[in-house]
Write a structure and sequence with these properties.
By secondary structure, the protein is an alpha/beta fold. It contains seven helices and seven strands, in the order E-H-E-H-E-H-E-H-E-H-E-H-E-H. Helix 1 runs parallel beside helix 2, helix 3 packs parallel to helix 4 and helix 4 packs parallel to helix 5.
Amino acid sequence: MTFDPRYAIVTASDSGIGKATAVALAQNGMDIGITWHSDTAGAEATAEEVRSHGRKAFVHQLDTTDLPSCAVTIDLLIDELGGLDVFVNNAGTGGSTLLVDTSYDEWRKIIATNLDGAFVCMRQAAKHMVKVGNGGRLIAVTSVHEHQPRVGSGPYDAAKHGIGGLIKTFALELGQHQITANAVAPGEIATPMTGQEDQDPRQEERLGIPLARPGDAREIAAVIAFLASPQAAYVTGASWVVDGGMLQMGPQAGSHLTSNDWRKA
């Protein structure tokens, strides 16, 4: 069996990493299913860019806290695309509250958005891939906080750790079907989520990151595109950290160091 990916779904592809990923996969010859939560115009802009590369694009709203509708939306996109070879789970949200001050409602919203919805969407994608029997790729966008916690991000940390575990289990269970499952764990990336949508990350200084800048969404998309390709057929159950070296500095260093003294022996 030769894996020849032609159809992909990228959740939350109305901006940032999701948009860059949808475009990168279109450039690699795939038709794209695009989802959005609140930015209709952003999703349509992504679709137009996908179509500019000669590929088809289909757009649907997806609320990952509405679990029954998640499966329906994924199935609808698969039907419109005509199949599914690559599923990229990118939808998520965060918060900035100490755990002792976190309400249960806030906890549930972040866990549902990031983890519950990821499970339902990836499960639905996997069911289709198993049934068709042509192999496939499950790729989850997590975070460096899949690996290390951060003060004020308790529910987010828990959810991203959880997705990392889901991916490893999918890898074990789906390998016999030639379906790989991997995570991509970004550090600070210049996207709307970090308030940097229109900024050039190469012009921003980050003293606590070894590469001394935030990342570009296209740098994350490039790693996802590799994992979605035939060349990544023997890669599964892994988490690919793309963070400019941030994790080597410890989970608090990236945005909190205020000098370059750490660089000195």
